[in-house]
Every structure is written in structure tokens, then in C-alpha cells.
Amino acid sequence: MSRGDKSAYTDKQKRQAEHIEESEREQGRSKDDAERIAWATVNKQDGGGKKSGSGRKSS
Question: Would you put residue 52 in left (φ > 0), alpha (ψ -120 to 50) or beta?
């Protein structure tokens, strides 16, 4: 059950999500939970899909 449009993500982010999802499945999570966790992790690491600018916040 894919949520949202994943076209804004880079190929690297998609590969990362796939790898995380496989890892979660190996730990016994359902497909939906594994996918949700994988994309949440990618979003947390990279701030979501491709965006303009460097993606870094100024402090």
C-alpha cells in the first residue's frame, strides 16, 4: 500500500528505502509497516523528496 507520489525522490533514496524495507521484513514486520518505516527513515535522513537548494537549514 504505497502512500503518496515517490517520483520526487532520487534513485539513491529509493534504493535506501528498498533496503530498509527488506531489512524490516526480515525482522518480521508486515509489508505495509516495513514500507512505512523505510520511507519515514529516508525522510528523516534526507528531508523528503528532491528540493531546491542544499537542503540544509541555516542556524
Answer: beta
Torsions phi, psi for 53 (to 5 deg): 85, -175
Predicted confidence at residue 3, as pLDDT, reads 67
Cα distances (Å, whole numbers) of residue 37 to 12, 19, 21, 55: 17, 11, 7, 22
Sign for the CA dihedral angle at 53, 54, 57, 59 comes to negative
Q: Angle formed by the axes of helices 31-46 and 11-26, to 10°?
A: 140
Question: Could you report the per-residue pLDDT of 5-49, keeping only the tens digit for each?
Answer: 888 889 999 999 999 999 999 999 999 999 999 999 999 988 766
What pLDDT does 52 receive? 54
